[in-house]
């Protein structure tokens, strides 16, 4: 078993379990709220689900940031290579983003209008992926920047830029971008991929505290 696989399992267990818990708890809460109304409407449920996109993406940012903060230095000090940790964290963020997109689309599909409207279905897939991947990549960038530069001037510049993938993903909606939202979503994905490369560069050159 490769080092990347071992590290991936540890990071995925953390992010995946909390993400699953958030989806399960959030879905249950929405069902309870709607069940207390006059009638359970699938369209109402789908409308509520669509509002969770930004919240889930923000949660991914927090989890990715924590993963870098708590796993990078201990794993490298324990013998894992920087490359293995970087690859594992990038793979985790990508897998979680795809999984979030699948769940998001499946819950939206409870509204028959989603299946009938190709534009809405496309938004669930493309817009969802751009947002969820952006959230995860932003978390990685923030964690890498803080790990590499701490409270230095470089960090003050890098940290704001770390939010760009998430913000671009949040803008990939018909409400913000109008009919151009697919273009904005594609640009957001490109930004996230660029952020992944930047994360790799930053973290592979990040110093590791010496054991005391």
Write up what this structure looks like.
The chain contains nine helices and no strands. With 212 residues, the protein is mainly α.
Structure in a nutshell:
The protein is about 85% helix and about 0% strand. The protein has about 210 residues and is an all-alpha fold.
Q: What order do the helices and strands follow?
A: HHHHHHHHH
What is the quaternary state of this protein? single chain
Low-confidence stretches: none
Q: How much of the residues is beta strand, in percent?
A: under 5%
SSE arrangement:
Layout: H1 3-35, H2 42-77, H3 82-108, H4 112-116, H5 118-149, H6 153-162, H7 164-170, H8 174-177, H9 181-204
Give keywords.
212 residues, mainly alpha, 0% strand
